[in-house]
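Work Package 3 (structural annotation) set out to generate three-dimensional models for the target panel prioritized at the project kickoff. During this period the team completed the workflow that converts sequence records into discrete structure tokens, so that structures can be stored uniformly alongside our sequence database. As a representative example, we reproduce one entry of 222 residues exactly as it appears in the project archive.
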Amino acid sequence: MIHLEQVRDALLALLDLGGWVVGLILALSVLSLAVILWKLVQFRAAGVGRHGPLDAALAAWDAGQAARARALAEAAPHHLGPVLVLALGAGAAARERLHALAEIRLARLESGFRLLDAVAQIAPLLGLFGTVLGMIDAFRAMQAAGQDVDPSILAGGIWVALLTTAAGLAVAMPVSAVLSWLESRAAAERRLAEALIEGALAPGLAAAPGAQARAGGVPAHA
């Protein structure tokens, strides 16, 4: 409880110094954290990064083990598993439809990315805007003081103004880093979808190294 009170007091002091600009930046940070946590839970539930079962299913399909391939694809704890089930034996005429179904599932993974990107771009701009407003106030106070300017007061106004820029960068940098990581994972899923669909439509040509061993078979063209 004591720690929570200390955090609350620190936030109130920060808001008092930085004004509404810092308050808006803090609100963006809370929103970004909520979106990031949601994406992490979503990625985990979708099986992002766990490609082994799908690789094994595709290898079994390449080895001519159709029943085993379908069973592995149906049991795979991955959001692209249903797409692979449909792709197995679907025929080349269904290629566009399969890619469209995969795109729908991939779009769900990428939802929220635009919001995080907007926060990463807006937060430092808000910080800079707050700094400009603070500098204006500081120089206005210096002008009003005339010959009786106190350099310490001017310095204090400047560092308070720069506080908003620091707050904006403190939010933008981690959000940008996390967004880059999420985008790289989504890009890997997109490449996987392409490999699964094309591999299912052209068996024997797209077996991944090591996947044959997991499937317990040999390539159909061996």
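The radius of gyration is 27 Å.
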